[in-house]
Structures are given as structure tokens and as C-alpha cells.
Amino acid sequence: MLNFEFKNPTKILFGKGEIARISREVPKDARILMIYGGGSIKNNGVYDQVKEALIDHDVYEFGGVPANPEYEVLINALSLIKEKNINYLMAVGGGSVIDGTKFLSAAANYDGEPWEILRNSVRTFEGEGMPFGTILTLPATGSEMNSGYVISRRETNEKLSSGGPGLFPQFSVLDPEVIRTIPKNQIVNGITDAYTHVLEQYMTAPSSADLQERIAESILISLQETAPKVLADDFNYDAAGNFMWCCTMALNGLIQKGVITDWAVHAMGHELTAYFGIDHARTLAVIAPSHYRYNFETKKGKLAQYAERVWGIKDGTLEEKAEAGIKKMEEFFHSLDIKTKLSEYTEDYKGTAERVEKAFTDRKWSGLGEYKKLTPQDAYKIVEMSY
Ligand code: NZQ
Ligand code: ZN
Q: Where is the Fe-containing alcohol dehydrogenase-like C-terminal domain (predicted)?
């Protein structure tokens, strides 16, 4: 097991009715900016619950953060933060709203041009961000209990990630009741995103970190078992709760401790969202199978372990089990009605491999993946295999 440090300071308030308790988590004299998306919270009662809970606080609002949160929109929120002397942020939404809030948390305490924080890729912000809490309305990203975020810049077709130890939420409310109003296409996105988060931290080489491996496998199995229940027409509170907690646990740092991690699927997937606007989770389902087939030799031990422990495949050689594991993964995505080929999302797919290779070369991303050896030329081949 590799050496590691682990600190996750986010307090979780889990369960029905917990939104009503948030006033205890926020300083009495805080000047709060409540940040939300395109309006789902006004239709499902979450907006009213938050306003009611914060009735004795000084609350300003910024709505309209789009999916794949945009720099051009967030910069207006930054002006409002300065104009109103805001000192506490409250994200109410899915990964996009929470990520946008993290960017604002960092940018509010950063003296330079805000986009610089995103420029040099992950973990460039070393200071303390403006404190914030989150009310999660869409389980998927794990952003509610981690310190990373992803921001898009429309004018340059960029989608870049950043983060830092001072950007964890102070608290996050996980009320499974919010899942009642999520459209099915967003629920399957959430399942697929969380599933791939586990894979990015697991599908490398077999390790000696037994507990992390078993927790990762448990999250995968729980997501597989919960999927049909959470997609059924009748709302099932316990299934919703399991789904929500799986998504949080998939990316709160725990399963990546002591092991090597990949994240190349996300790096390539983000490009597909930046070029074509494809939902984040769906880009991962496009790239992952090709990525695992392209890197079969270095990943086959873990792929076979996945096939055995997660899908119960006991027969065949190591290679046969490994390939069976990839097929099972694809079948799982298809069972959610998630397509796994780029050409099924856009007719303009030709030339995408060249674009990705050039973008990675320009950014000097010369060594992605768990061994930091995946080159822009490798990315070209993986994206081409995903057509
Ligand atoms: O904007 P509103 O009106 O709120 O509607 C949203 C949005 O249209 C809707 N929605 C959310 N909760 C709902 C609801 N509709 C009905 N009922 C509810 N309870 O769902 C739509 C999608 O929301 P969004 O926040 O965009 O989805 P998601 O949570 O999947 O976030 C995706 C973003 O997170 C980034 C992705 O790249 C993408 O930009 N990621 C962040 C990560 C992190 N911080 O750790 C890791 C991930 O890998 C990912 O990259
Ligand atoms: Zn993701």
C-alpha cells in the first residue's frame, strides 16, 4: 500500500428533512450568496426549504448557473460577491452548481485574473477559499464531499479542472427526497458518472490495498443493484438514499488512498463535452471501453478481478475474464440506455481524435494515466477507437 494522507473535513447531513437544519451550520452574521442553476429548485420546493431554513440570515441570490458551469456566467457572480461583501456561499444544485461555487470560493480569495486558477490544471489553489456549504439536488459527481471542480469556458472551447485542500464544502445536505423530481436521463447520468469515478480509481493494477479495493467493488455492486430500483416509476426512498451515498463515497477521496489512480477517461471525456456539449457521464461511457481495451496489457489483471468479484465470472483465462469484464461494463451502461460510441451522439465525430491530440499537446499533457505514460498520440488512438 502506498503512503497517504487523508483528511476530509466535510460534514454530511444525511436524510429527509435535513435541509431545515442548515442554519446551525452557518455563522449568524454571515452574508450569504445562495447559488443555483436553471430553476429546478424553484419547481420542486428545495428553494423554499432553503429560504425558510435561512430566514434569520442575510441571503442574496445568484441563479442561472448552467450545466457544465461557465466561466462567463460565474464571473457575474464574482462581481456580486464583491459588491455585496458576501462572506459565505451556499450551493443549491447538482455538480455544476457546486463546482461553480467552488470556483467562486477560490476566485473570491485570489488576487490575479480568475481564469489563471484553472490554467495549470488540477490543484493549483493552495489557499483557503471563501467558506461554503452545499445542498445536493443531483447525486453524481461527489463534488459535495471533495475539493475538486470543473469549469468550462465557452469562448475557447475549454473544460478544465482545478481544486485544492481549502475548497472542501464545510457541510453538505444529502436528502434523498430531492431525487423524486430528477428526470431519468439525469439519474442514469449520475449512476454512470459515479460508476466511472470508481473505475478511474480502481481499474489500474491489482494492489495490496485490500480494503480500498473491496470498498470500490462494493460501490460498483451497490450501484448495479440500486440502478433498477431508483429508475422504477414508484419513488423508493431507501434506493434513492443508497444511490446518493454511493455517488458521494465514489469520489470523496477514500478509495483512492494508498493506490495508483488513472483519470485519463475523464481527461478525454471533458474534451467531448467541450466540443459537442455531450453530458459529462455519457462522454465517460464512450471513452472507458476503448481506454481499457487500448491499455489491456497493463490493466488486464484488474479487469479480470473486476469480472470475477463484481460480476461473478469465474471461468476462462485471465485475458478472457478481462475482456468479459469490459463487455459486462458496456452491457451495464446499455442497460441504463447510455450509448457507448461517439458516433451515436454526434455526426461530426470525424477529426475528434486529432483535436484531442492537439489540445493535450498544447497543454503539455504528455503523461496521463496511472503510470503517467499515456501520450497525446495514445489519446488520439483511444478516441478514434471510440467513434
Ligand atoms: O439547472 P437546474 O435547473 O437545477 O437543472 C439541473 C440540470 O439541468 C437538473 N437537476 C439537478 N437537480 C435536479 C434537477 N432536475 C430536477 N430535479 C432535481 N432535483 O439536472 C441538470 C444537470 O445538473 P448538473 O449539475 O449539470 O449535473 P451533474 O451533477 O452531473 O454535474 C455535472 C458537472 O460536474 C462536473 C462535470 O464535468 C459537469 O461539469 N464534475 C465534477 C466533479 C467534481 N467536482 O468532483 C467530478 C465529475 O467527474 C465531473 O467532472
Ligand atoms: Zn465524472
A: 190-385
pLDDT higher than 60, residue 207: yes
Residue 210: how many CB atoms within 10 A of its CB?
10
Q: Is pLDDT of 121 > 70?
A: no
Answering whether pTM is above 0.95, one says: yes
Among 215, 116, 129, smallest CA distance to 167 is for 129
- 146 in contact with ligand 1, CB cutoff 6 A: yes
| 31 CA to centre of ligand 2 in angstroms | 32
250 in the same domain as 132: no
Using a 6 Å cutoff on CB, does residue 99 contact ligand 1? yes
- Whether 325 is in the pocket of ligand 1, judged by its Cβ within 6 Å, is no
ipTM of the predicted assembly exceeds 0.90 = yes
Predicted pLDDT of residue 150: 94
Contact 84, 61 (CB under 8 A): no
Q: How many structural domains are present in the chain?
A: 2
Q: What is the DSSP string of 148-198?
A: EEEEEEGGGTEEEEEE-GGGS-SEEEE-GGGGGG--HHHHHHHHHHHHHHH
Centre of ligand 1 from the C-alpha of residue 96, in Å: 5
Same domain, 233 and 278: yes
Band of pLDDT at residue 206, cut at 50, 70 and 90: very high
Kindly state the average pLDDT of the residues 71-98.
98
In a mutational test of the pocket of ligand 1, which residue from 96, 146, 162, 243 has the highest number of ligand atoms less than 8 Å from its CB?
A: 96
Structural domain includes residue 67: yes
Is the confidence at residue 122, as pLDDT, over 70? no
Beta bridge partners of 60: 33
